[in-house]
Amino acid sequence: MSTRTVVAVTPSNPPGITLTLESTGIFLGILVSASVLGGIAVTVISKMNRISNSITQIEKTLEEQARNAEKIREIDRTLALHIQEYVNRKDVIQMLLGQLNEKIDHKFKRVLFYTRDIQRFLQRDTDFKIREYEETTQPDE
Question: CA-CA distance, 81 to 129, in Å (whole number)?
């Protein structure tokens, strides 16, 4: 019979992952870099969201300003119409007042003419004496 000797030998490259100090350092470096990149990505995304929200808010503000500008233009047109209407009414009233003033002057001149005519008639045919009246600004006592 022959005997055989079996020696347990561990293979030099065991199957699986072999962790060495260098490979652990590289793995941790990759994890740290990935977490830093993730943090930067989160920061960039949050800034982009803030910028997007700011742009949306600016758009809403501009739309409101456009509506307000349209309201202002409408009010300005209405005001212009009212001002023109006021000017037209003022001109008509001034014209009417001028006509009334001319009528009053005309009537006053006619009354003055008739009064003088009557005075002359009374002086010529009677002993009527015409008194001159003066307007006084002092109150009667």
Answer: 62
